Amino acid sequence: MRTPPRVLIADDNAANLRIMRTRLTADGYEVVTAADGEEALAAARDATPDLILLDIMMPKVDGIEVCRRLKERQNPMFVPIILVTAMADAKDIVAGLEAGADEYLTKPVDHAALAARVRSMLRIKALHDTVAAQADEIARWNTTLEKRVAEQVAELERVSRLKRFFSPQLADAIVAGGAEDPLRPHRREISVVFLDLRGFTAFAETSEPEEVSAVLEAYHAEVGRLILEHEGTLERFTGDGMMIFFNDPVPVANPEERALRMADAMRARIRVLGAEWRRRGYDLDLGMGIAKGYATIGAIGFEGRRDYAAIGSVTNLAFRLCAEASPGQILVSQRIYAAVPDLVDAKEVGPLQLKGFHRPIVAYEVVHLKHVGA
């Protein structure tokens, strides 16, 4: 509400109009006047008063009809109306209140009563305006909150999608803007690890589905924990086979070392699981291959179904080394071994004639790591 408040007085009696205007002006109010009902409607629209004093008996449109029309207008602001009647006619008062009037005065208007009614109605308007403003603010907060919730849900969905491929730390960094969009194709040098369970095909052919499911569940739980622990990116997941790579989507320190430490930890853990499996009659063990090289990495697939993939000869080399590995064996490429010669005790294997490679490949079998600490 403005200061000073604006009051509209509508009365066809010039003397009454002059008296009320003088009194209210003296009390500090801004006063607007109208001489009949039509003028009152126009002034209420154009002057936007904070309070209206309406004489009931007016030409053209009487005060009760003016009151009814004003209350029917879709005005978001509350404007109290005081009806002024020449006599305390109960019918006029009831009709005025039913039309939407908030208070009434009788003529001749007593100055003290006029001042008290105006102050009371303006106080009610101020309270109403405060509540309306607070309601609007709450509505804006709710709209903002809904938007923030929608953004957070979208962010959680994006994080969830990214965590299918990346460690939680990397997924969070990507969403927070700590990494470029990883789904856009890009070229980077990575260390690739392939692994699968030796003897799994024969085991699956002769075992009940529940037994196969239980073995896979234990196997996935163990290797999955180690992938996340070493911040690897799971690219491929096919039953007992997996492909993990390091140094993408966010570059990491010593990707070759991470790959080797993860593979060594997996071998140690699967040896423990393998002992339990052998007690149950399952002949299963882990074979792994690790290679280093450049690949093109990004999203592949079609609308509605996309995967994150690395494409290049390095992935084929890691896969072929994995296929060549015996149960419990880790085979690494020459580039991997050359990158961390002080980390591993290894012995040369081959040269190997691997499918898809024209020249024989020199590889190394990792016997054990010289430094166990991460």
CATH superfamily of the largest domain: Nucleotide cyclase, GGDEF domain
So what's the overall shape? rod-shaped
SSE pattern, N- to C-terminal? EHEHEHEHEHHEHHEEHEEHEHEE
Structural class: alpha/beta
From the 3D coordinates, which CATH architecture of the largest domain would you assign? 2-Layer Sandwich
Total DSSP helices: 11
Total DSSP E strands: 13
The CATH C-level name of the largest domain is Alpha Beta
Largest sheet: 8 strands, mixed
| Low-pLDDT segments, ≥5 res | none
The CATH topology of the largest domain is given as: Alpha-Beta Plaits
Number of domains: 2
Quaternary status of these chains? Answer: single chain
Query: Kindly state the mean pLDDT as a whole number?
Result: 87
Helix content: 40-55%
Taking all Cα atoms into account, the compactness measure Rg is 42 Å
Question: What is the percentage of strand-forming residues?
Answer: 25-35%
Overall description:
The strands form 2 sheets. Strands 6, 7, 8, 9, 10, 11, 12 and 13 form an 8-stranded mixed sheet that branches. α2 packs parallel to α3, α3 (63-72) packs parallel to α4 and α5 crosses α6. The protein has helices at residues 14-26, 37-47, 63-72, 90-99, 111-162, 168-175, 200-206, 209-229, 255-279, 313-324, 334-339; strands spanning 6-10, 30-34, 51-55, 81-85, 103-106, 186-198, 233-238, 241-246, 285-302, 305-311, 330-333, 344-352, 361-369. It has 11 helices and 13 strands. β4 (81-85), α4 (90-99) and β5 (103-106) form a beta-alpha-beta unit. The two termini are 69 Å apart. The radius of gyration is 42 Å and the shape is rod-shaped. It folds into 2 domains: 6-135, Rossmann fold (3-Layer(aba) Sandwich); 175-369, Alpha-Beta Plaits (2-Layer Sandwich).
